[in-house]
Every structure is written in C-alpha cells, then in structure tokens.
Amino acid sequence: MSLQMLKGIGASSGIAIARAYRLETQEPVIEKVSSRGSQSELQRFEAAVEQGKSQLKDLMEITAQRLGSEEARIFEAHLLVLSDPELLGSVKDKIYGDAVTAEFALKEVAQEIIAAFESLNTEYLRERAGDIRDVTRRVLTTMGGQLYYNHNPINEAVIIVAHDLTPSDTAQLDRVFVKGFTTETGGRTSHSAIMARSMEIPAVVGTAGAMNEIQQNDLLILDGGAGKLLVNPSPEVILQYEAKLLEEKRQQAEWSLLAERCTFSADGHQVELAGNIGCPDDVQGVLDHGGEGIGLFRTEFLYMGRSEVPSEEEQFQAYKTVLEKMKDKAVVVRTIDIGGDKELPSLKLPKEDNPFLGFRAIRLCLETPGQELFRTQLRALLRASIYGNLKIMFPMIATLDELREAKGVLQEEKQKLRSAGTEVSDSIAIGMMVEIPASAVLADLFAPEVDFFSIGTNDLIQYTMAADRMNGRVSYLYQPYNPAILRLIKMVIDAAHSHGKWVGMCGEMAGDRAAIPLLLGLGLDEFSMSASSILPARSSILQLSQAEMGVIAQQALGMSSAGQVAALVKRLLH
Fold it and tell me: Any catalytic annotation for residue 365?
C-alpha cells in the first residue's frame, strides 16, 4: 500500500483518522415492462408516495431534534416534491399513456427533471438534482421493497466513502462512529455539505475518483479544512495528524472558556460578535457559543419549503420567541429576502434568466405580489417588538427611493397597529443591508436615514466582481480580500461613523479568521457569523491590537491584488 492524496472541496472543517467504509449504492434496475393494469399501477404509486411522505415526516422530526429546524426544512422541500402536481401528473400520464409500470414511469419523469436541473449554470440549482434523486429513490425502493444501501450496521470508527450522499443518508449518519465522509460529487452548497457543518462532521466533497482509488478498510486521514484525503499514510504522517487532532480538541476546550466574555481587542477596543440564524431553534446555539446578539435573522427560511406562506400570527410567535430568548440582546431581523437562489413556490413568480439581478428581496416586497407579504411580516415584527431589542433591516437596497418607500410602509403599518390599540416599541432601530456597490458608494447619503448598516459580503463581492458565487468556473473571482471590496467596506464604515451610526457585517467574510484582522482595522463594529465561528473569532480578536490592525488595513487598501492582501494577512497570522 502506498500513500495517495486525493483533492476535493473542503465542505466541513476538521480532521478525521479512521478506516474507509465504502458505501455502495444499490440502485434498483428498472426495465420498461408493460403494466397489467394502469389503475392498479397508479394505486401502487400513490401508496408509495404516501409512505414516502410518512418516512420524510419522521426524518424531519429526527433531524430537527438532532440538528435543528433549519436543517429539517431540507425534508420539507422533499415533501413538496412528493406533492408537486406536475411531477405526479406526469407520472400518471406515463402510466396510462404508455401502459408501463409505476416504477418505470417515475424513473423516466425523474430523469427528465434531474437532467433539467443539471443543465443549469448555477451550482446551487444544479445540486438540487440530488434532492430529486433522493425523493425518487425513496419512492422507488418503497415500491420495490429494496434498501437504499446494502451494508452492515456501522459499529466502529469509520470515514464514509461514497459516490454521493443524499440528505436522507447524511441526516442518519451516526456521529459516534462516523468521523467524516468524502463523496465524489457535491459542492459547499449541497445539502449534505450544509448538514455536515451543522453536525460538525469533517467532510470533503467533489473528490473525483474516490470510489476507484479507495478500498474497503484503507486507512484514511481526512482534512476537511484543506479539502484533501490521505490514503494509507505512513506512521510518521499519522503521528503528525494525530497531533493536529489533539491540538484541535485542546483549542476547542480553550475557546469554550471565552463563552461568557465580551469581545475586546488587545488594546481595549470593543466590538460585538453576533450569530446568524434561520429559525427560533437556532438561538440556543448562538447563546451556547457566546453570541452577544443576533446579527442576522434570515426570515425567508420561515417561508421556504412549504406550500403556503406563514400567517401573521405564526410569524409573530417566531419573532417573539427569538426576542424573548435573547432577552435584552440585539436581534437584527432582515425582512424577507426571496429571489436569487431562494425560491418561494407559493408566490408562483415567473422564471428569470438572471434571478440574482432580478425581481428579488426589497424589489419584490415593494410591488405586487410581494407587498402584502411584506406588510404582513412588518405587522408581525412590530407586534413582537415589545418583547426584546428588535432591529429591522431591509435587504438589497440600491436607491434612496427604495429605502424611503420601505420605511414608509413600515411607518404605515405601525400607525395602523397603534390606531387599533396594539402596543409597539418606540425603540426599534431601522437599518439596511449594504450588498450592492451602488449603496456602498452612496453610503454617505444613506447614513443619515438609517440607524445602522449591515454589510452583506456574499452578494457585495459577487456584484462588485461580476462573478456568480455559485458558478465554479468563475469562483477564482470571489475574492473577499480584493482591495476593491476592502475599499467599499471602508467607504461604508467611514460614512456611518461620520454620522454616528454603527456598522455590522453578516456575510461569510465576518467569520473568516483571516479577514477578521482587516475588518477590525477598518473599524467594523459588529461581526455576525455562524454560531460555531463565534468563539474562534473572539479568541483572534482578543490577541489583536485594533490600532495595529488599522495600519495593516491601510496597507491592504493600497495593494493591487487579493493575492497581495492574503499574503500580508498570512504573514501577520504566522
């Protein structure tokens, strides 16, 4: 056995050392066979669909308990697939029109849908083909009485090696024995990758040739942060990684001691570290990891993966729950940000050639059919405002007119509620996302009209660099350290501070340990990130001088490339 190194995409950081467990897919072989009776075939299909729905509901409940409700919503999307009249109708038409078995009809229809998804040029949407496969396989195996995989129960430490892992597979991994996984397919935005990060299981995806190169029981070292896999490493290499693994555990224990501390730099400059959430169940994770507030409540997750929009009362209860759990800590709620890669089937919006630049977020909320949706959400937020420290921000603001119109709608709903005798807080801060270059350039004009800014770097970077962040072919242009991005961030911070306003950041960059020194030096006031990133970020900031980072940031602003800035920060951190 010789050492091999396979490269992939780091989907979930961490190191795992264990034997390989090859997960062999047992795909049902389905041939075109004439059915003996179309009515009986349709009944078989409908019964399998109902059984699949029941299984998914059970899986949703288990996933919500283990990982949280946001991850469980993946299976709400699967339930929607099994209720899709277009899919069900197409299968029925094939059963009757072609006089074939239910299995063959479903396989044919599913393959057409999967091919359509895989032909799209957006990585996020291409990876939804995996969800269709998962749902289809569930129904097919129910009809055929077959298992997803033909394998023995896992009862020892392993690293899973598979061509692909569906969300159903990932949700059911036993974290006691599964130390990590690698798949030949997938990217960072695949549902399995997202769930791996929630489960804190190291994972490398997109590892081409893994099933050919790795044999059952090969010894593996998986480095999720570096996106690589070592096959049959030498004893010396194993010792090196065992030392890294021990250091990881020691570091985690050290970070846990910082959970109750405020966040000060080495020279006494205070900033706030907050958490990003998608639903009320995520709040506890932020508190457990020492979050000083909620810097981004992505409210669109309350709407997605369901056949109808949530009622005002349902939303009110969700916002009230979050505010009460956070007590007097700030909760920044982003109004509904539907569009781009976040679809809302219940709105039945027409398909757009470039949805990231289309009718989305505040644009949708200020016009039919989205304005009533917007007003309903604002009423729910205003009613909940008396239960905590609520801050409301509007996404995708490009012009002053949009901001003023959104504030006007909020004021109208506030007056209506008060006229009806409903209590509303007098201290709701109003802010806006800065994720479009136009709003960053005009930050000095926006600043007098808001209480705060929150910089959404995920979109700001892709719009500034004209590079779809979901498109692997232009991923090299997704450059958080590009001086153009840093200059826009500085422009926003300086404009806000000159008007006595604070600035947060809720994009991925806020939790990037290599970016934190630059952001601290640029004067960022609030860093909002995933819960698991909060304590590592606090540890970093405690060791950094804000004044010294200001000098470093000034140097970075004068550089000519992202590579130069990255090298500057690397020297600083090492």
Answer: no
